[in-house]
Amino acid sequence: MPILEFMLVASKPDTFEKLQLLSRDSQYDLACACGSNKFDRRTRDRSGKWIYPVTLPNGGTAMLFKTLISNVCSSDCKYCPLRSNMDIRRCTLKPEEIVNTFLDYYNKGEVFGLFLSSGVIGTAEATMDKLITCAEILRKKHQFKGYIHLKILPGSSPAAIEKAISVSNAVSLNIETPGKEFLERLSNKKDFLRDIVEPMKLISRLTHQSRRKVKQTTQFIVGAAGETDQHIINYTEALYKRMGLNRVYFSIYQHSNTENRENTDMQDGFMREHRLYQVDFLFRKYGFTPSDIIYDSSGLLSIETDPKEIWAQKHPEFFPVSINTATKYELLRVPGLGLTTVERVLERRKAAKICSIDDIGIIGKRLLKASKYLNFGNLPQNKTFLFNF
Ligand code: SF4
Predict the structure, then answer these.
(1) What CATH class has 3-292?
(2) Nearest residue (CA) to ligand 1, atom 3
């Protein structure tokens, strides 16, 4: 038994000990933008405590105080180390413990906000009450105006959802699987439509109606229910289009409660997760649609090659792209050209014709890769389809 857990068994845990356990258990929830980056922002900061780096929309990083209120859970999700039949040490933080500890960090400028989640303490309603109480103490008693992200538990009532949104900057209810049939393989207690989809629709409606900007995110657990990447990606697109979600996150199912990332299966798993993020990015920023994504015969993305390059390999008729006349979205189809580089190309060619890769003014392997897909003449693009968004 790890020393910390032995101490907890032997004595009543204090706030620090509870936070050690509960912040560790919160690592699997990435709906706050931890771990969505290739360089792995899933793990905690070097102090090993409850401070998690998150990736900001502009690509930068900031520190978030992230913990569960409780790792007690009455639910039975097969992929989760906190499910009710697991023999683990359980504890629950009081709202004041969370608020006071968080404010210590916030006032010292060590974190920019709070992410609070929880196992189901008896019922979703009772647990939501605790989550909302923490946020209300911060907002009302301490006049806290900063960032709060609250987890909405599956099966929460409309009243609890509305209250949570009223005190948060962001909320997330995890969709977990791309459909009812997959969730049924993982839980006998959660009903996909009643407990997840309907509340997500309500969150979407309320966050879009709200005069304050409140973000809605969600997360898939990847690889626990035998779903394919294609299933996940089709659902992801629908979540953006039909519910207007701000972000969808992916968390690979980790077979054991471990932060060991050396294991080969786990390495493939993390690469699968990374490929899903790449597709998500292609949808949100590059104008790709589900029909542009190419899978193997099992509905999986390639682990070896990124999805944009595979699209390029399958569409030789689209290349070479004229760097001097192509639209932004045509340039974004070129492997090796990212958003920043394309913006630079568009800027540079206003001033003068781009005659070689060197004229872009950036060096690197990715640009060398791009050069084989580009034409440096200024003839108009003569392709079967053009991307003008
Ligand atoms: S409800 Fe959440 S904490 Fe409880 S078993 Fe399911 S995933 Fe784990």
Answers:
(1) alpha beta
(2) 119
